[in-house]
Design a protein that fits this description.
Layout: E1 2-6, H1 12-25, H2 29-32, H3 37-53, E2 58-64, E3 67-78, E4 85-94, H4 103-117, E5 123-125, H5 132-140
Parallel strand pairs: 4-5
Antiparallel strand pairs: 1-2, 2-3, 3-4
Bound molecules: coenzyme A.
Residues 22, 26, 91-94, 99-105, 127, 131, 133-134, 136-137, 140 line the site of coenzyme A.
Length: 154
C-alpha cells in the first residue's frame, strides 16, 4: 500500500543518492560532455541540503511496504520581480516500477497542500526542455509554461 509522509533524517542518504541520479539523468548530452556525474552529483546534493536547511524547506516521501518509492522536494521561494512568495517544487522522482500509478500526483498534491498551509497560493517548478516525462507530468498536474530559458552555443 502506498503512503506519503514527511521526510526524516534517516531519509537523507536516499534523497542525496536519488537526487544525484536524477540530476545526471536530466543533464543534456552537451553538458555531460563538459561535466561528470561526480560534479553533477555534488551540486545536486548541495542543493538538496540547502533546501532542507532553509526555513520551511522539506521533502515528502512516497513509501510502499516501508520502502521509499519516490520523493518531492518543496520549499518557499521569493519571486525575483514581485517579491511575493510562492511554493517551489525543486525535484520530483518516482521509482520506474511505480510510475504511471499516480504516485507523482500524490506527491505533488501533498506538496501543494503544504504550501497552502503556509499561506502560499502559487507553485513553480523547473523542467528541462528535453525531459518529456517532467513536462507531461507537470502539465497533467495543472501547471502551464511560465518562462522559457533559451540558450545558444557561441
Ligand atoms: C515525472 C514523474 C515524477 C511522474 O511520476 P508518475 O508517478 O509516473 O506520474 P503520474 O502517475 O502521477 O502521472 C501523471 C501524468 O503524467 C503524464 N506522464 C507520466 N509519465 C508519462 C510518460 N511516460 N509518457 C507520457 N506521459 C506521462 C501522464 O499524463 C500521466 O497521467 P496518466 O497516467 O493518467 O496518463 C516520473 O516519471 C519520474 O520520476 N521521472 C523521472 C524524474 C523526472 O523527470 N522528474 C521531473 C523533473 S525534476
Amino acid at each position: 500500500m502506498l503512503s506519503i509522509r514527511s521526510w526524516h533524517r534517516s531519509d537523507l542518504p536516499y534523497l542525496l543518492e536519488m537526487s544525484a541520479q536524477l540530476e545526471w539523468s536530466v543533464t543534456p548530452e552537451s553538458d555531460r560532455a563538459r561535466s561528470s556525474s561526480e560534479v553533477v552529483a555534488r551540486r545536486a546534493q548541495t542543493s538538496v541540503l540547502e533546501l532542507l536547511q532553509a526555513p520551511s524547506g522539506t521533502a515528502f516521501i512516497a513509501e510502499s511496504e516501508g520502502r521509499p518509492v519516490g520523493y518531492i522536494l518543496a520549499g518557499p521561494q521569493c519571486n525575483e520581480r514581485t517579491g511575493e512568495w510562492h511554493g517551489y517544487m525543486a525535484e520530483i522522482y518516482v521509482t520506474p516500477q511505480f510510475r504511471r500509478k499516480k504516485v507523482g500526483k500524490a506527491l505533488v498534491e501533498t506538496a501543494e497542500a503544504y504550501f497552502r498551509r503556509l499561506g502560499l497560493r502559487k507553485v513553480r517548478t523547473w523542467v528541462h526542455a528535453h525531459n518529456p516525462l517532467g513536462s507531461a507530468a507537470s502539465t497533467e498536474y495543472g501547471q502551464r509554461v511560465h518562462t522559457v530559458l533559451l540558450a545558444k552555443r557561441l
